[in-house]
Write a structure and sequence with these properties.
about 375 residues; alpha+beta; 12 helices; globular
């Protein structure tokens, strides 16, 4: 009788573990945090990631590439996943290794031949100069979902949640897309300089760019090539009054590269595209070039307590946008439609030498989600420049 009770307890414990692992199923689409909201609003993206980690069953695989990480709750979830038999693998940049990350390293180790590990890259993992700046999250299974891919601008830090606007786009059931990102992840893990690290490839309808592109010229710059494919006349069902509509939220838009992109965006405005831009770390020449062309430009750097000693570093910022996305409704590559580009790349010189990722999402629903986020920041949490 006693033995039967013990067996029953074990079975119930395992059943509870299984039901807990299947409790949350990540849904496809865009999510955004709100640094001016409640704690739950600030942590929207991190909660989404943590709940997905918690829902991974035994023998599943988690692969995370991030620039920085300091969240104890994320580390707790990853350690629990590892202990229940999930392969947990993470790549971080070496700019700053937090106490929480050190705790994860002590548990998982750094041996990349083992099923779970943490690898810390020195500079760009795949290109040499620069940083490992990608932010993507891969799950073989999570709840009822398989082959989950998450891409966005958010780092796994409390600072990102509390002071930055960030985005995350989740795709579900995309085995070939997860395989592509897993291949890039393995390149990051090897921490070896590749002769040709830049990758441009399409999986289904999703177009992907992985940097660095250290030898990119004005002609071959991936963002410049994108802007050259924009047509400013829009057909019915897209754009506004026959004009293509472009919205850009860009944290770092500066340097000589940033100026070239601003000049191209100014040309699109002069050709009839309706363009609005939200910047945070926007270069003076970049902003001036855009404004002189009639582009609407606002800044999301806001000092909300009039205290010059709070916020980002020594600046007076209390909140700012860290997002790096562009939306388009109108003509792209000669076709009408709705597009979103999002990921980790800033429009600056560093954006070409870092490990970066950008994905194009040609979905009307995704466009609507990002446009709503843009409009909210533009009308409520930005200032004129």
């Amino acid at each position: 009788m006693r033995r039967a009770c013990v067996v029953l307890v074990v079975i119930l414990a395992l059943a509870g573990q299984m039901s807990s692992a299947a409790a949350y199923t990540p849904k496809p689409g865009a999510m955004f945090n709100n640094p001016r909201g409640s704690t739950a609003g600030k942590d929207t993206l991190l909660t989404h990631i943590t709940r997905t980690i918690n829902s991974t069953p035994r023998h599943a695989t988690i692969k995370i590439a991030a620039y920085s990480q300091d969240r104890p709750d994320v580390v707790d979830a990853l350690i629990k996943a590892h202990r229940r038999g999930v392969d947990v693998q993470m790549v971080l940049n070496d700019n700053w290794t937090s106490r929480a990350s050190h705790r994860l390293i002590r548990t998982l180790g750094t041996d990349t031949n083992r099923r779970s590990f943490v690898s810390v890259c020195v500079a760009s993992c795949r290109g040499g100069a620069g940083n490992q700046h990608m932010k993507f999250y891969l799950f073989s299974r999570a709840g009822k979902a398989k082959n989950v891919v998450m891409i966005g601008s958010s780092n796994l830090t409390g600072y990102a949640a509390k002071t930055q606007w960030n985005d995350m786009y989740t795709l579900v059931g995309k085995i070939k897309l997860r395989e592509l990102y897993s291949t890039v992840f393995e390149q990051l893990v090897r921490n070896r300089r590749l002769k040709h690290p830049g990758i441009h490839t399409k999986v289904g309808i999703y177009e992907n760019h992985f940097g660095p592109f250290p030898r990119a010229t004005k002609k071959s710059d991936p963002v410049m090539k994108r802007l050259r494919d924009v047509g400013c006349r829009a057909r019915k069902g897209t754009g506004v009054r026959g004009h293509t509509v472009i919205r850009v939220v860009m944290y770092g838009w500066a340097s000589s590269r940033g100026l070239r992109l601003a000049e191209k965006m100014a040309t699109l405005r002069k050709r009839g595209c309706y363009v609005r831009v939200i910047v945070s770390a926007g270069g003076r020449k970049v902003v001036g070039t855009l404004k002189r062309a009639g582009v609407g430009v606002r800044s999301a750097d806001l000092d909300l307590d009039n205290n010059p000693y709070t916020g980002f570093g020594e600046s007076p910022w209390d909140i700012f946008t860290h997002e790096k996305y562009m939306t388009l409704s109108g003509t792209f590559r000669g076709r009408s439609g709705h597009q979103v580009w999002t990921g980790s790349e800033n429009w600056s010189g560093m954006g070409l030498i870092n490990d970066e990722v950008t994905i194009r999402i040609p979905r009307k629903r995704a466009y609507a989600q990002y446009l709503k986020n843009f409009t909210h920041i533009w009308t409520t949490w930005s200032r004129a420049l």
